[in-house]
Structures are given as C-alpha cells and as structure tokens.
Write a structure and sequence with these properties.
The complex is a heterodimer of chains A (607) and B (335). Chain A has 607 residues and is of the alpha/beta class. Helix content of chain A is 34%, strand content 16%. Chain A has a 21-stranded mixed beta sheet, covered by helices on one side. A two-stranded parallel sheet of chain A has the order 5-7. In chain A, α14 links the parallel β13 (319-323) and β14 (343-347). Chain A is globular, with a radius of gyration of 26 Å. Chain B has helices at 25-30, 50-70, 99-109, 130-134, 140-147, 183-192, 237-259, 296-302, and strands at 215-220, 227-230, 277-283, 288-290, 303-310. The model of chain B is unreliable at 1-16, 20-166, 188-212, 260-269 and 318-328 (pLDDT under 50). By secondary structure, chain B is α+β, with helices and mostly antiparallel strands. Chain B has a 5-stranded mixed beta sheet with strand order 2-1-5-3-4. Classes of the chains: A alpha/beta (607), B alpha+beta (335). The interface between A and B is large, with 108 and 101 residues.
C-alpha cells in the first residue's frame, strides 16, 4: 500500500488536473482508470448531459455525481418536431427539478430540449437554486409567461434565458417587468418564440439598458422595426441580434436611424428574425454585413434578387438559413461571394404546394458544393434531384458532417433517369467519411441501406422516410453502422426480422423510432421481454395493441435503452412491452451504469 | 392471453440477438444484387416456443414465396408504399388476414381525418393534437366506408409518375416545424406590391380564416397542460364540444387514475355534454363569453382561446343565469 501511494498524486492534485477535462467522453474515460480515479472524478464532475431523460432516473444521477452545477436533458424523440408524437407522451422535467432542488442547491445551469416544463417547474427552479444562471428551453412546452415571471423575479444572477422555438402560453407581456431593477447580469435573452402579444417594450428597453454584458438578444415578432433602432443604441455591444417584424410604416427617418443604429454595433456577427421583411429597409444592414458570420433569413419572404444583394455584402458568412426563394441563381451568387460558408439550410416556402413555386433545384446545391470548400452541414428542401448531382456534391464536399436532403414529394426518383437515388446517397456516404448525420428522401431501395451499412461508419443519426423494400434494408443499417446512436424511421416496409436479429445493437444506441412500418405487436413484446435494458414502448391512439393479434403491426414504436426500467408516467396511449415483475435492483442498475460509462455510451456530448 | 415467450428460456440471451440460427443474411451479400436471390428465412424466437413460431412462420411463409416472384417483400398488411388507394386494403392477396386486422389497419391510416379538411398549421406553433381523438368514435363500419373514398384524403403518397390533383397531406411531412408551414400564404399579399405594408402588432393568426386551419388554445380545469383545437375542423358547436370532450377525457382519466383512491370510478361520462364542464371563450376584445351564445361563424371569427370550466364553479364567476351577459375578464378566471 505504501509503495502505491508513493507513485500517486494526492486527491486534490488529481482533482485539479481533472478540472481541465471538460468533455463528457474524456471524463468517462478518466473515471474508468481505477477505483480511486472513479471516486475522485465523480465528486468533481460539474456538468452532466443526459440525451434521453428516461434512460436514467434523477436519483441515480445524483447518487453518482453529487456536485453537479450544470445539467442538460432531452425528452421527446426528434419526430415530435413534426407532430408524430402525440401530446401528453411525456418528457416531464418536474421530477428532475424536484430531486435536484434537494440535492443540488448550487445548480447553475439547466438546458432542456423537447421537454414539458410547467410553471410549477419554473417556480421551483426560481426558488431552489440560489446561484442559478442559465436556463435554456429549446423546443419545450407546457409553461406560460407566469413561469417566466417567476424566473425573472427569483433568479438574481440570471445570465441566460433562452426560449428558442418553445411553445409558451402567452398570458401577459408584463412578465418582463418582473426582472428587478437590480438585475444587470443578463448576457443572453432569446424571446423570439413568444407570440404576437405585446411584449412590454418599455420594460425590455430598461432591461437591455442596464445589462452591459448583454451579448445576445433575440426579440419576438411583435417588436416592429421602428423600435429596433432604440434597442440597438442601448446595446451596441451585441454580438447576436434577432429582429422582430422587419416592417413598419414608411417614414423618412426609419431607414437612416436604423442604419446608424446598426453602424454602432461593431461586434455584431449574427442576425436572425426578419419576419415580414420590407426589402427597402434591408440596406440598413449593410454596415454590419462584412462582419456577419451567421444570417438567418428563414422567415424572410424576400425574393432572390434581394437575397443576392444582401448576401453579396457578406463575404465572411459561415452560416446561412434561408427560404427557397433564394433559388438556384441566389445559391450561385452565394457560392461566389461566401467562400467561408460552412452551414447551409434551405427551407421550403410552400411545402404543401404541388407545383414548384420557385426555381430551386439540385443545381443550386451543386453550385454551393463547388464554390464553398468548407461546407460541412446541409439541410436542403427541394423538389427534384439526380444521382449525378449527388455524386458531384459528394465529390466536391468530402468534409460533410451533416447531410439532410428532403425531396418534398415522397419516393421521387432521379428525374433524368427515373432510377432510385441509391447511387447518389451511396456516393455521399462513401466520400464523406466523417458524416455524422444523414437524412434520406426520394425513391430508395434496400441498396442505399447496403451502401450506408458499408460506408457510414461514423454515422450517428439517420432519418429515413418512405424508403426501402424489405427488412434487409434495416438490417444493413443496424449491422453495419458502428457508431449509430439514433435511428428514426417512418413509413418504411421494415418489420420484425431486422429488429429481432439486431436486438443487441439497440442497446448500444440511444433510441430507435419506427412509425407506420410493419413491426408486429408480438415482436415488440418479444423484444421488451428479452431485452431488459431496453424500454420498448408502443404508441397507439386508437386502441390497446394487446386487443389485436400478435401479428398486427403497431402504429408507432419507440425503443430506447434505459437503466431505470419502464417509466411510470406513460399516458393511456403508450404501452410498455416489459415483462412484469422483473424489476431491476439498484445493484444491477449501478453495474449497468458503469458498463455504459465504460463504453462512453450514454453520458456523452451531443451532436 | 398468450405471453409469447415461455419463461424457461434464458433471461439474458447469450447470443446477443433473438434469431440464433438459420440466418441467411450472408447469402444475400454474396449475390450480385439480383433481387430474386434475396431470401429471408429467419425464425422469430428461440426454438421450443411453438405458439409464437407458428404464427411467425405463417407470416414468413407468405413473405418468402412472394419474394421469389418479384424480389420485393410484400407484406401481410397494407402499407403506405403500396401505391394502392386504401380502398384496396380489403382485397389484398393475403386472404388469410382476418378482416378485423385490416380494418384496424385502415383506421390507423385514417387517424388523419378524412371527413374534415386536413389540418394545416399556422405560423403560431400548433400541434395537431385533436386529430387522433376525433377518430376514436369511428366504428368499424365507418372505417370500411371511408376506405373506399377517393385517395385524395388518405395518408398515402401516390406514384410520382402521376400528377396529383388533390394531394392528401401526410402527417409530419415534409419534416418542418409547424411554424414554417404558412410562410408563403401569409406574405403573398405583401409580395404583390413592393410598398411597405403595416403589420398590425395585434394581428393574431389564430383568428384569421386563411384556409389553412385555425388553431386556438384550449385549457381545461384540472389539466395542467393545454391543448390546441383546429376550429376549421368543425362547423357546429356540437362537433366542437364532442371533440373537446374526447380530447380531454383521456387526459383526465389518466390523471385521475394516478390519483385515484379506492372506490372512485374512472371517467366514462361525457364531460361537456353532461354539463359537468362548460365551455367558455375569450374574444378579440378580451372578454369572456359563453360558448354557444352567438352564431357559429361569428364565434369563429372572434374567438381567441377556449376554456373548459367546471360548471360547479360558474356561479362564482358572476355568470348566474344570464346567458347574454359578459363574464369577468379572461385573466381573472381561476388558473
């Protein structure tokens, strides 16, 4: 024993060394070196990321990591964004807040994604954590401006309040007045999701005026253009700004005031908002354009010529979100002006129209792939595609990390050859060796999945819709994609065989979603009963699946690994397929907890 | 009810998959991709579980024989990719499927309402929460009748070689958030002229009948999370009332189930129709009104949000027996 000690550092030294290790994966590795490192590490872990709030219970997390200051939780499956997960499914944060209120009095940061947050939860946060600093509610719902008032009033050192894309019950705009006059600590405020109710603008102005460290401010749609100049003058140090409605009555001063206001913002790098844009006011942005690295015009219904004008003033642009009004011509201009472009997202302006309303085709994406060598991340909605274009894109951009293509009409073939787009997507996975996220669309057979299983070794998230011919397709993916963590599938002819044959694979993944496929109720039961570390949940809103035959397909299936067993907050339309009476003891749970950590599985950074 | 797996099989499968032998995946890889050779002859479940296996072999038998023909795995159950209108569900070659199964599958297609206009969301983030509940009341016969309706309203995307005349929108497709669904239509008037137009800050999309659905929020006493209903889906107070009933009945039942003490009955009754709850709404002037006072179309054009209050608490709100009078302001209603 003595000898061992002579070669090891005292705990405090190790702790200090560990404090430089921030990434969850590295922390996990550290904790597995030996027992004493495990102990030291768990006492000094300050940040925890939990990719699925049902994978582990709050008590387990608290027991292992007693001194956490920052937690990130994700709730509903991704397809909830597109209304595929019924209301009331789950993802409630309250049980977590209740436990943490007692165990983590010094908690500073809570980041939630796709969770149900009630006013009660927000009030509890405001009451329980004296040093609370950061609240990010990404795509959450269930709370109202009353809850926000509680946060504003209760959190004396609040730095970040970010409600991006959340669904907030707008009861009154006066919640902003609940920020005390003594609150000067705000660094980031994002209220862009709030409805059209009047936000108490005077309260907002006063708040902005007294927070000298404010770096990021995203207003909601209700704030009209004439008010922006005032705000900008109060906060010229802003780095990120989101406008409200970019429109107002035509008055002589507005443009000049606005231009002057933008000119005073020497640090401004990122712009968003731009609802209802009046193009005449866009030149006000020119003073900041040369420094802009991120521009979100995805709500701006301006057309290609105006977009081109704006974008050609932005040579430093790294990130552009835009509607398909940009058209192929605009994308060509983008490709020649913005050589630093890393991320491009093109959204559909008329997603339900049958005929294309704009001239945006595969050619636009090809131009950008040719002109922007740093392009890494693409989300592209269009109405036509060819294998040749995809092959070209793949060859031009071997550095893709995220490639999401959505051809609006399901099962659209290559419009020149009539073939499926297997070869095109195959080229993407073959050339882009670092691809982490892929979304498929168009006419696709099992072949594309064979390519994916063969080449996409770093793929972590795959989204599939209306594709494939048979279970073989799914089998290729499950057996070939070594890094796969999240798989979401809808309307594909995938059934029992592939899932059952690859049941063990599912334990290495965060989750699997399958809806409108042909997985039978019997297979779900089998999976649930055999795989104790998986929660197999069947969602069916019409009637209980057990009232049907075993061979009847389930409507929606959500399978995820968990060490806390089936959840207890399921609504009536969600059924768990776990065997009854087989409760995991705590002992077993901790064994698996370690096992997961050892394999760097569930406690890890997100994409 | 059969369990499907007998318990004498090892609880933690040594082989980490549930199809231990007789897989022929590798045969496929060797092939030149010719679809006829792709055969999947797997058995579901370990040997010795006859109940389970019999059923599954039954289904596999169909599948392998069909694949020999055209290399495509055709299924027991109609699936959206079949390019067949839902009407053909009942006439699939898989005659062995019990009738019941097929119509049930029908109704899963029909979760998307086929009798009413397909809901389209507004820029305000709206969720199609009411849709599944609306169809709960559909009985088997209705499903059959609906199955033979023209495909315009089904969730089945048709062949791309055909030009669609009236596309039936698929739930959750294209994969964009609700807030992005109406950008073109909302701005089309502004695109026509280049002059700046005023966007009145008080304009609420929820109240605008713009042809793509009219979602209003609705809260019910005792249910912490509100829902949204699409008023475009109804044309009368009765239908709205029924829909709201169904929407909340399940939620209230689930809530009460968890809080239930012995002897309490689960909710089976109709909530609004029976008078236990009363629907009120907030109009565009911020006043609380009883639902049902004014003609339907007038209601639809002025309603901002809905609420289902416990009828027993109504007298406290100063409503009394006067149906014509206005109630207290909306924001003083109990939470």
């Amino acid at each position: 024993m003595q000898k061992k000690r002579a070669y090891s550092f005292p705990d405090e030294v190790l702790e200090h060394v560990f404090s430089f290790i921030q990434s969850g994966k590295d922390r996990n590795a550290v904790s597995m070196v030996c027992k004493s490192w495990y102990e030291i590490e768990r006492w000094c872990r300050r940040k925890v990321f939990i990719g699925n709030c049902y994978a582990v219970s709050p008590k387990m997390v608290i027991k292992r990591f007693p001194e956490v200051r920052s937690i990130e939780l994700k709730g509903k499956p991704h397809f909830a964004d597109f209304n595929l997960v019924p209301d009331g499914w789950g993802g409630y944060v309250l049980p977590w807040i209740v436990e943490m209120a007692g165990a983590y009095p010094w908690l500073e940061e809570i980041r939630l994604k796709r969770m149900v947050v009630t006013d009660e939860s927000l009030e509890l946060i405001a009451k329980s954590f004296k040093n609370f600093k950061v609240l990010v509610l990404f795509s959450c719902e269930g709370f109202s401006t009353d809850g926000l008032a509680a946060i504003a009033a209760g959190c004396k050192n609040l730095r970040e309040l970010d409600l991006r894309e959340s669904d907030v019950d707008d009861l009154s705009g006066h919640w902003l007045t609940h920020f005390p006059e003594t609150c000067t600590s705000l660094v980031s405020l994002n209220i862009s999701c709030l409805g059209s109710d009047e936000v108490s603008f005077s309260a907002l102005e006063r708040l902005v005026g007294r927070c000298p460290n404010l770096r990021s401010l995203r207003l909601n749609r209700a704030v009209s253009l004439d008010k922006i100049a005032n705000i900008l003058c109060l906060a010229p140090q802003l780095v990120d700004f989101g406008t409200g409605n970019y429109t107002t009555e035509l008055q002589p001063d507005v443009l000049s005031n606005l231009t002057a206001a933008f000119s005073s913002c020497k640090e401004l790098k990122s712009l968003s908002g731009f609802w209802d844009v009046v193009p005449a006011y866009l030149p006000a942005l020119y003073p900041v354009c040369s420094r802009l690295t991120s521009l979100n015009l995805s709500y701006a219904t301006i057309h290609s010529p105006e977009i081109i004008k704006l974008v050609s003033h932005c040579p430093s642009l790294q990130r552009l979100l835009v509607l398909d009004y940009i058209e192929d011509s605009g994308l060509e201009a983008l490709a020649s002006s913005c050589k630093d472009l890393q991320e491009l997202r093109v959204f559909p302006s008329d997603p339900f129209g049958v005929e294309p309303n704009v001239s945006l085709t595969e050619k636009g994406l090809v131009s950008v792939s040719l002109g922007c060598p740093k392009l890494q991340s693409v989300l592209y909605f269009c109405r036509q595609m060819t294998n040749a274009a995809l092959v070209t894109i793949a060859q031009n951009c071997p550095n893709f990390t995220r490639f999401r293509l959505c051809i609006i009409e399901p099962k659209t073939a290559d419009y020149l050859t009539g073939e499926p787009l297997d070869v095109g997507f195959g080229a993407i996975v073959e050339h882009c060796k670092d691809l982490r996220r892929l979304s498929l669309s168009g006419l696709l057979t099992d072949r594309v999945f064979e390519y994916i299983g063969t080449y996409a070794k770093k793929l972590e998230m795959l989204s599939v819709a209306f594709a494939g011919d048979s279970d073989l397709g799914l089998h290729h993916v499950l057996s070939g994609c070594e890094s796969l963590r999240k798989l979401e599938i809808r309307d594909c002819p995938f059934g029992d065989k592939a899932i059952l044959a690859n049941a063990a694979k599912l334990e290495t993944m965060r989750s699997l979603w399958m809806s409108s496929c042909t997985v039978s109720f019997g297979a779900c039961k089998l999976l649930g009963q055999k795989m104790h570390r998986l929660n197999v949940e069947v969602i069916d809103e019409t009637e209980p699946p057990c009232s049907r035959l075993e061979s009847c397909p389930v409507d929606k299936l959500y399978v995820y690994r968990s060490i806390s067993g089936p959840r207890s907050d399921m609504p009536p339309f969600v059924w768990t397929m776990d065997e009854e009476g087989d409760n995991n003891s705590n002992q077993k749970d901790f064994f698996f907890l370690d096992m997961f950590v050892r394999n760097n599985h569930y406690i890890s950074n997100s994409l | 009810m059969e369990k499907g797996c007998s318990k004498n099989v090892e609880s933690c499968p040594q082989l980490l998959d549930l199809i231990p032998q007789e897989r022929e995946w590798h045969h496929v890889k060797r092939g030149d991709g010719c679809s006829e050779e792709k055969k999947l002859e797997l058995r579901l479940g370990p040997p010795g579980e006859d109940n389970w296996r019999d059923e599954s072999l039954l289904s596999l038998g169909y599948l392998s024989s069909s694949m020999k023909g055209n290399g495509k795995q055709t299924h027991e159950f109609p699936c959206p990719e079949d390019h067949r209108p839902v009407g053909s569900v009942l006439s699939t070659p898989w005659g062995k499927n019990p009738h019941q199964q097929q119509t049930k599958t029908c109704s899963s297609f029909l979760q998307f309402p086929s009798t009413t206009a397909p809901p389209h969301s507004l820029p305000v983030m709206a969720k199609e929460s009411s849709q599944p509940c609306c169809n709960k009341a559909v009985d088997l016969q209705d499903s059959e009748r609906k199955a033979f309706k023209p495909p315009a309203n089904t969730a089945v995307p048709l062949n791309t070689s055909q030009k669609r005349t009236a596309p039936g929108p698929v739930v959750g497709w294209p994969p964009i958030r609700s807030i992005r669904k109406n950008l073109a239509s909302n701005s089309s008037s502004k695109q026509a002229s280049d002059s700046p137009s005023v966007d009145p800050p008080n304009e609420k999309p929820a109240a605008e009948p713009n042809g793509k659905g009219q979602f209003v929020k609705i809260n019910m006493d005792g249910v912490p999370i509100g829902r949204k209903v699409d008023l475009k889906a109804y044309d009368s107070y009765e239908k709205l009332s029924t829909a709201v009933d169904e929407l909340f009945r399940g939620l209230l039942a689930a809530q009460r189930d968890s809080n239930m003490k012995e002897g309490e009955k689960a909710i089976t009754s109709v909530l609004i129709g029976s008078g236990e709850y009363t629907l009120v709404y907030e109009d565009d002037e911020g006043d609380s009104m009883l639902v049902g006072d004014v003609p339907w179309h007038m209601f639809v054009s002025t309603v901002k949000r809905l609420r289902a209050l416990k009828s027993s608490e109504l007298p406290a709100l100063g409503l009394g027996s006067s149906k014509q009078g206005k109630m207290k302001p909306w924001n003083t209603l109990p939470p």
